[in-house]
Design a protein that fits this description.
single chain, about 60 residues, mainly alpha, 2 helices, about 0% strand
Length: about 60
């Protein structure tokens, strides 16, 4: 897999996880409370970061010696 393909796959995985978590929790957020909105936004961002980290950890290293 080329670096471009790997980056595209990473972006796709992160986008899918963020959209899925956001749509799942969107109905439960009270948008009148800024604390709930901030917590929800942080949770969605954290989901994307965890997905990216998981993908990177599973990818083979391409470091040339």
């Amino acid at each position: 897999m080329t670096p471009k393909q790997s980056t595209a796959r990473l972006v796709l995985y992160v986008t899918i996880s963020i959209v899925t978590s956001a749509s799942a929790g969107l109905q439960t957020v009270d948008f009148h409370s800024w604390k709930e909105v901030a917590g929800f936004a942080l949770a969605v961002i954290a989901t994307g970061l965890v997905t990216a980290r998981s993908y990177i950890d599973q990818s083979p290293n391409q470091v040339e010696k």
